[in-house]
Design a protein that fits this description.
This protein has 2 domains: 33 residues, no CATH class; 249 residues, Vaccinia Virus protein VP39 (Rossmann fold), CATH 3.40.50. It is built from 10 helices and 7 strands. With 287 residues, the chain is of the alpha/beta class. Strand 2, helix 5 and strand 3 form a beta-alpha-beta unit. 39% of the residues lie in helices and 14% in strands.
């Protein structure tokens, strides 16, 4: 049995447990299989550099500004990097789960010894004073500060149900000032391919929605939205797309050859290859 098959089996077992118990074991497995923070720091730093490049292109400065982050992940790396490289005043981060632990915060802090961050003395999490953390909070239902400059997400939207992406952005469009920009980094590829190199990055597009729902769980949910899906959601709400970039796939690569071997489900055959293969989407929105 291949790694991604074993992982799918384990997650499906956990998915059948009562939610609280399932998440307990899921977090336990994640902590025990976590190996090194170095590669995560490197990947996140690349993302911040991309964000910095785009914002500079449009003369958007985050110096002394407040940023809202959608999806905290397991480590507060992006907030630390936003503070260090973009000199923000505050990061407000929302997540429907609670992933931060004091151990993870300390691990992150060790990589930023050259920066003098002030930390809170808390009975819960000892976060820096520039991070406001709201776990177990759906941003759709949150009271967001209006005095913010940017809403940001990194590889989060692909894990959000399409209806919630729509509701989230309807809220942003209705409630927030025109000065607020929205920047999303989206990874629309089949994430199972990251750990199994024999799998196509588009493998999950061969399944119907019913078939895919039998494979995925609440722990590894992926909406499989393609680039045109995202564009339509944002434009239908009224947002202007100020900046859009994405990776393409060369036809002489192994990645493309694996894609060509797939029998793409009819749900996706209305899209051309460029739309299906668009990866590492980076999109900037404004009212």
């Amino acid at each position: 049995m291949k790694y991604h098959q074993k992982k799918t089996l384990v997650l499906n077992i956990l998915d059948k447990l009562p939610s609280k118990l399932g998440y307990y074991f899921y977090h336990l497995i994640q902590r025990r299989t976590f190996k090194s923070i170095d590669s995560i720091i490197t990947a996140n730093t690349r993302s911040v550099k991309k964000v910095e490049h785009i914002l500079t292109k449009f003369n958007i400065s985050l110096k002394n500004q407040t940023v809202v982050e959608i999806g905290s992940g397991w480590l507060p790396i992006m907030p630390f990097l936003f503070k260090k490289h973009l000199n923000v005043t505050k990061i407000i981060t929302y997540d429907i789960n609670k992933h931060y632990t004091n151990k993870n915060i300390l691990s992150t802090k060790e990589f930023f010894k050259d920066v003098n961050f002030k930390f809170r003395n808390s009975s819960d999490l000892n976060l820096p004073d520039f991070i406001d953390y709201f776990p177990k909070t759906n941003i759709i239902n949150a009271q967001i500060e209006n005095d913010i400059r940017l809403i940001f997400s990194r590889f989060v939207l692909e894990h959000v149900k399409p209806i919630d992406i729509q509701k989230m952005h309807e809220k942003f469009y209705t409630e927030l000032d025109e000065k607020v920009k929205i920047l999303h980094l989206i990874s629309p590829s089949d994430h199972r391919a990251y750990s199994n190199k024999t799998l196509s990055y588009y493998d999950f597009l061969k399944y119907s929605q019913i078939e895919w729902d039998k494979i995925q769980t609440k722990f590894d949910y992926h909406n499989r939205l393609r680039l045109p899906h995202y564009i339509k959601i944002f434009k239908d709400i009224g947002f202007k797309i100020t900046h859009l970039e994405y990776d393409t796939t060369n036809t002489d690569t192994d990645k493309y050859l694996k894609y060509k071997q797939l029998n793409i489900h009819s749900d996706y055959q209305k899209f051309n290859e460029k739309e299906i293969l668009a990866g590492s989407i980076c999109i900037l929105l404004e009212k």
